[in-house]
Amino acid sequence: MQGRLGVAEDALAELAADPWATGRHRYFAVRIYYTLGQVQRAQGRLSAALQTCRQELVLAAEGGRPAQPTAGVAHLGIAQALYERNELDATLDQAMRSVALSRQLGYAQWLVTSLTTLACIRQALGDQAGALEAIGEAERLVPSTVVDLFFPVAVQRARLLLAQGKVEDAARWCAERGLAVEDEPSYLREREHLVLARLLLAQDKPDQALTLLERHLEEAQTQRRRGSEIEILALQALALQAKGERERVVSILTHALTLAEPEGYVRTFVDEGPEMALLVSEVLEAQQRGQLHPPVPAHYLRKLLTALEQAASSATPPTAELPEPLSERELEVLTLIAAGKSNRRIAQELFITAGTVKTHIRNIYRKLDAHSRTQALVRARELNLR
User: Fold this and answer.
1) Domain locations in the chain?
2) Given a cut of 80, is residue 153 above it in pLDDT?
3) For helices 206-222 and 190-202, what crossing angle results, to 10°?
4) Which alpha helices (DSSP H) does 178-245 contain, by range?
5) Of the ranges 23-32, 64-73, 206-215, 349-358, which one carries the lowest mean pLDDT score?
6) N or C, which end of the chain has less CB nearby within 10 Å?
7) What superfamily in CATH does domain 1-152 come from?
8) What integer is the mean pLDDT of 308-315?
């Protein structure tokens, strides 16, 4: 809970060496392995986390009874690691097993976390209604006093709101939580503050987002929490893109990808939405020009781009027509916004003034009922406008 994961891993590994030390109670033995896997995943070591959770599954099934309720949390740990690697079919199977077994166990933390993980998977598969259904059930099970580190349902609900373009609802949640840029960084509240950073990006406030992210990055690096470091760097790249600082975008994102590639990270990048595809493409182009040292493996970059394209294609189909369609010029501006271009760059490419670009963007916002670039892109994707 203090973010001292190295010390925590040592203590947990010692317990895992003799999981029956506290008696022949399967619940305690399995919980040791699950927590150890969580620590390893937070450190960015997905392979180690998967191995630990598979050992946990064997432990839970000791005696030849694989359907024991305590096996549910083992399936949960496997699902969480496989989700990051974008193995969605296997992830969905593991999550469904986890939910079914956790219902039998009657322990709120595991069932809530299983349902929250299921919501993430359904969102990734384009099933927004199913995602909200799962997160809704999880919310009804959460105790009145919770620690988000162990009951991540509220944070995941806020991320779903942002992913579905409901920026005002997410802003209301952040306000209710009392989140502010000036807050001291804390591992316990890191997930909440990263939601705040995403909200600031959706509100076109990249400078504030960068201030918040820089402080959390420093703490994550100090505590060697590589999982957090990769996620924060990805968000920093998006914030710098919003400011039009292309060279820094490539540098920051390259750093994140270099850390992420050995363990096969995918969803940390894909879940940030369509703008990430442009950033990854820029890294690939820089690499093809021989500008990255050391280079990021090209096969990994193409894997990410494929996953980003698949995520875009699984988006919800249009639910309504625009009362006032976008003009051809507005569609051109929208395309350049999706490419991460600044207003100045859009003006240069379309041979118009910066003031005209601002007018077009205001019209796009009005017609799409959006209040930021991110919101406009989400709405455009829902309507198949790009």
Assistant:
1) 1-152, 328-382
2) yes
3) 160
4) 190-202, 206-222, 226-242
5) 64-73
6) N
7) Tetratricopeptide repeat domain (1.25.40.10)
8) 75
